[in-house]
Amino acid sequence: MDIRYSANQKDFKRYTTEETRAEFLIEKVFADDEIVATYSHVDRMVVFGCKPVNEAVPLDKGIDCMKNFGTNYVLERRELGIFNLGGEGSVEVDGEVYNLAFKDCLYVTKGHKSVVFKSKDKANPAKFYMISAPAHKVCKTTFLSIADAQKKPVGDNSTANKRVINQFIHPDVLETCQLSMGLTELDPGNVWNTMPAHTHERRSEIYYYFNIAENQAVFHMMGEGDQTRHILVQNDQAVISPSWSIHAGCGTANYTFIWAMCGENLTFDDMDHIAISDLR
Ligand SMILES: O=C[C@H](O)[C@@H](O)CC(=O)C(=O)O
Ligand SMILES: [Zn+2]
């Protein structure tokens, strides 16, 4: 398991490109028939990727649960948000099977012992992108298709940021302990997300960029509003955004991303907006 410790905003000002990438960028999220896990000490969010091809893959494959989580199984004290970003597949949760097509989501609550991933067709494998957060009580394991998500159309063609924020794991849609998660899709010809930018002192966030066409990329902006830096993000990569950091991106073409938050509250609009004229 790749473990990332917390970095602070004062030291960050002097980071090189390599240091910035090593600290915040998750370059590899998927490997065939493996669980790829990145444990961030920022609000203890864990990124899991699973691309089952030839076999059924359990969530704890290759993970020493007692060593990494201090529990007997991964979800003993954690909840999990899952998005399928590949071909059709299934998630079996303690014997109950959920079928997930492209962009379908499954929220798995605390306390489930067995979570197993499968693809329907190995020629077009499922890709399960997941975020886990610490949880203190049992909620309801729930399947959500994009039709169930609350839709927030924002932005405009004239500012190249016309997009739809699909809120899947959100207090208006279902109850969770700490996790909120959704999928933001940019219209063709639109490249900017989350501009004007914001921070949220009470939560941190992870962005996972996908649907980036070949030879295109996203310049992900981070840092305090008056100390911005960027990370070059390629397709299928994620960026950790601590509470002190803005998180916005500009693509060389349109793209889609999954955002996930965890922290003190679940209040989506509890944000500190930064005027574009105040950015440095
Ligand atoms: O705190 C909220 C998150 O940063 C995202 O939901 C923002 C986003 O998807 C967007 O503006 O495109
Ligand atoms: Zn945010």
From TrEMBL:
<comment type="function">
    <text>Catalyzes the isomerization of 5-dehydro-4-deoxy-D-glucuronate to 3-deoxy-D-glycero-2,5-hexodiulosonate.</text>
</comment>
<dbReference type="InterPro" id="IPR007045">
    <property type="entry name" value="KduI"/>
</dbReference>
<protein>
    <recommendedName>
        <fullName>4-deoxy-L-threo-5-hexosulose-uronate ketol-isomerase</fullName>
        <ecNumber>5.3.1.17</ecNumber>
    </recommendedName>
</protein>
<dbReference type="GO" id="GO:0019698">
    <property type="term" value="P:D-galacturonate catabolic process"/>
</dbReference>
<feature type="binding site">
    <location>
        <position position="205"/>
    </location>
    <ligand>
        <name>Zn(2+)</name>
    </ligand>
</feature>
<feature type="binding site">
    <location>
        <position position="247"/>
    </location>
    <ligand>
        <name>Zn(2+)</name>
    </ligand>
</feature>
<dbReference type="InterPro" id="IPR021120">
    <property type="entry name" value="KduI/IolB_isomerase"/>
</dbReference>
<dbReference type="GO" id="GO:0045490">
    <property type="term" value="P:pectin catabolic process"/>
</dbReference>
<dbReference type="GO" id="GO:0042840">
    <property type="term" value="P:D-glucuronate catabolic process"/>
</dbReference>
<keyword id="KW-0413">Isomerase</keyword>
<dbReference type="InterPro" id="IPR011051">
    <property type="entry name" value="RmlC_Cupin_sf"/>
</dbReference>
<dbReference type="Pfam" id="PF04962">
    <property type="entry name" value="KduI"/>
</dbReference>
<comment type="similarity">
    <text>Belongs to the KduI family.</text>
</comment>
<dbReference type="InterPro" id="IPR014710">
    <property type="entry name" value="RmlC-like_jellyroll"/>
</dbReference>
<feature type="binding site">
    <location>
        <position position="200"/>
    </location>
    <ligand>
        <name>Zn(2+)</name>
    </ligand>
</feature>
<dbReference type="InterPro" id="IPR027449">
    <property type="entry name" value="KduI_N"/>
</dbReference>
<comment type="pathway">
    <text>Glycan metabolism; pectin degradation; 2-dehydro-3-deoxy-D-gluconate from pectin: step 4/5.</text>
</comment>
<dbReference type="GO" id="GO:0008270">
    <property type="term" value="F:zinc ion binding"/>
</dbReference>
<feature type="binding site">
    <location>
        <position position="198"/>
    </location>
    <ligand>
        <name>Zn(2+)</name>
    </ligand>
</feature>
<keyword id="KW-0479">Metal-binding</keyword>
<dbReference type="GO" id="GO:0008697">
    <property type="term" value="F:4-deoxy-L-threo-5-hexosulose-uronate ketol-isomerase activity"/>
</dbReference>
<keyword id="KW-0862">Zinc</keyword>
